[in-house]
Amino acid sequence: MADDHRDTPDQSVSRRAFLKGGAVATGALSASLIPGAADAQLPDATEPDPHRTTVELKVNGVAYRKEISNRTTLLQFLREDLKLTGTKMGCDRLQCGACTVILNGRTVYSCTTLALEATGGEVLTIEGLTKDDRLHPIQQAFIEQSGYQCGFCTSGQIMSTKAFLDRVPNPTEEQARLALSGNLCRCAAYKKILESVMAASRLMRA
Ligand code: FES
Ligand code: FES
After folding, report:
1. Per-residue confidence of the chain (206 residues) as pLDDT tens digits?
2. The pTM is what?
3. CB within 8 A of 186, min separation 6: which ones?
């Protein structure tokens, strides 16, 4: 089949010549056919990157100031930037609660919270519960009651328990069950988890 020449030879590039010419032809085309291509400016390296922002926040009482991508989630910031790996990633889509941390006194799913949203705030993670090498009463209760099996969901369960018991120090089992309903356990250790929450409330009141 004949090549498709539609213009006069000095103005056109045939399909065959284009394919044969490869990068040279492509370069020639982009320089000659794309308006303004020759004058295109590379981004100024001294300009601030609009996709990155400096966040300032406290995590477990320690102040941090770091430049991060605007898309960094709080979970990524904790685990990858601060190396606080006690907070786990389960579903990464707002379904399991393994990534639960406390931000300004309220539980959040850190997998779907941007680190930017925490700017100026205070984050508490599982690492921040232990004081002077002494376990928090909630951690103690989970151990004593065996409120876990594989343990993957446990830090999220404990952080939800912490926010709950700070609000409701003497709960009923029904209240506790409802408060932890956003934390799934694939091992289905729910009975033991509930017993741990109730034991923790007793320990904290004592
Ligand atoms: S990892 Fe965040 S909700 Fe599952
Ligand atoms: S203890 Fe295994 S997922 Fe909860």
Report:
1. 444 444 444 445 555 554 454 444 444 444 445 555 555 666 666 787 889 999 999 999 999 999 999 999 999 999 999 999 999 999 999 999 999 999 999 999 999 999 999 999 999 999 999 999 999 999 999 999 999 999 999 999 999 999 999 999 999 999 999 999 999 999 999 999 999 999 999 999 99
2. 0.79
3. 150, 152, 153
Please choose, from the candidates 192, 190, 186, 196, the residue with its C-alpha nearest in 3D space to the C-alpha of residue 95.
186
Residue 29 lies in a domain: no
CATH number for 165: 1.10.150.120
CB atoms within 10 A of CB 175: 15
CATH number at residue 100: 3.10.20.30
Q: Ligand 2: does its nearest atom lie under 6 Å from the Cβ of 189?
A: yes
Ligand with an atom nearest the CA of residue 153: 2
| 149 alpha carbon – ligand 2 mean position (Å) | 5
- The residue range of the domain holding 94 is 51-127
